[in-house]
Specification:
Layout: H1 3-19, E1 25-26, E2 33-34, H2 37-48, H3 50-65, H4 86-104, H5 111-138, H6 142-149, H7 153-173
Antiparallel strand pairs: 1-2
Helix pairs in contact: 1-2, 1-3, 2-3, 2-4, 2-5, 2-7, 3-4, 4-5, 5-6, 5-7
Length: 177
């Protein structure tokens, strides 16, 4: 692995950890917090690419697993992955990979295509893994877990828009990226 890849992986893992410093807002009834960290996942996939973005998120969740308090609210440890939010965290590498892969198919994509790629990878993929996990871990019917998770969609859509704007700005400023 080249030095540039190692730097990108470490950078996006650190960015995702830093986004955990924003205080989480917990949705009553389901116990899953609204955090800024999925923005880090979206940026990792859109700026670092599928492979490096996914590896950055693997590094991030590995650091969480060994006990570093990197998740929003200062949470960390292997137990996180067995709780209601575990599926959402486990989905981070998959989501970053999906975003990077979709954007690689059209490197000069317009705003709409970029938004759809980031939303599909950063929202749909995370929910597709996180909601069933939430249902099992919290003992909720899948429908109730799904409906409860819809409270997060407006914030996630805002994060997807921010990720598109940030990605386009960074790519304009650093075309070699």
């Amino acid at each position: 692995m080249d030095t540039r890849s190692i730097v990108y992986i470490a950078l996006f893992a650190a960015l995702t950890a830093a986004l955990g410093l924003f205080p989480p807002l917990t949705v009553p009834g389901i116990g899953v917090p609204i955090t800024a960290q999925t923005l880090g996942v979206m940026l990792a996939g859109s700026l670092a690419g599928a492979r490096r973005g996914a590896l950055a998120m693997v590094l991030f969740i590995a650091l969480v697993a060994v006990g570093l308090p990197l998740l929003a609210g200062g949470r960390g440890g292997i137990g996180i992955f067995f709780g209601p939010t575990g599926g959402f965290a486990v989905a981070f590498p998959v989501a970053a990979f999906v975003i990077g892969a979709l954007l690689a198919k059209a490197p000069r994509a317009g705003l709409v295509h970029s938004f759809l790629a980031i939303a599909l990878g950063g929202i749909v993929t995370v929910y597709a893994i996180g909601i069933p996990w939430l249902s099992v871990a919290a003992g909720l019917p899948l429908g109730k877990a799904f409906i409860g998770s819809m409270a997060f969609v407006p914030g996630d859509l805002i994060k997807a828009v921010l990720a598109v704007l940030i990605t386009r700005g960074v790519r304009r400023a650093l075309p070699a990226l």
